[in-house]
Amino acid sequence: TGSHFTGAAQFGAVQTGGALECGAAAFDADADFRGARVGGAASFDKAAFAGAALLDGAEVRGALGMRAARLHGEVRCNDVGIAGGFDASGATFGGDSLFHRISAAKGSSFDDATFAARAEFSGATFAEGLCLRTTRFDGPADFEGASVQADMLCAGARFGGDARFDAVHVGGQLDCSGAAFARRAIFDGADVTSDLLCEHASFAAETR
């Protein structure tokens, strides 16, 4: 916790039987955790990443935390398996953020997070719900083919680019109450088991 890495951090070969604690760490260059195996929780809460954060193919046997983290470069979390939840509440993502086919077995949250570039969650699985309340997406947001097995809560979110929910499956409510869509909002083929809530939402462009 609180460590400072001035050069590239290479942790792709790491295997731990317990937790990985990188809370409040500072990474001045790329941080590579691709393929890491963590036997407990992995915490990057309040960490600062000046370069890329690479976690493709990592396995976390507990929760993954990025609360209030500052990620200035590209984030790659494709094919990450998380036995707990993924909490990135209040985090700032400055570069393209890719979460293709990520899988979280517990509830996950990006409440109050900011995405300054692309945010892609295509094919992701969130077993106990996904919270995106008051999240800000300055670029395109893509949830095509994602599966949220409980509620997907987007109340008050701001979508500055195209927002794609094509073929998304939501096992509970899809709540877009008070959300603002500055560009296209696409729900083609979306499957929502309960309510689709759009009360007080604003749609400035094509919606389908």
Overview of this protein structure:
With 208 residues, this protein is an all-beta fold. Helix content is 0%, strand content 36%. The protein contains no helices and 37 strands. It has strands at 4-5, 9-10, 15-16, 20-21, 26-27, 31-32, 37-38, 42-43, 48-49, 53-54, 59-60, 64-65, 70-71, 75-76, 81-82, 86-87, 92-93, 97-98, 103-104, 108-109, 114-115, 119-120, 125-126, 130-131, 136-137, 141-142, 147-148, 152-153, 158-159, 163-164, 169-170, 174-175, 180-181, 185-186, 191-192, 196-197, 202-203. The strands form 5 sheets. It has a 10-stranded parallel beta sheet with strand order 1-5-9-13-17-21-25-29-33-37, with no helix packed on it. Strands 2-6-10-14-18-22-26-30-34 form a 9-stranded parallel beta sheet, with no helix packed on it. A 9-stranded parallel beta sheet has the order 3-7-11-15-19-23-27-31-35, with no helix packed on it. It is globular. It starts with a strand and ends in a 5-residue tail after the last strand. The model has no long low-confidence stretch (mean pLDDT 97).
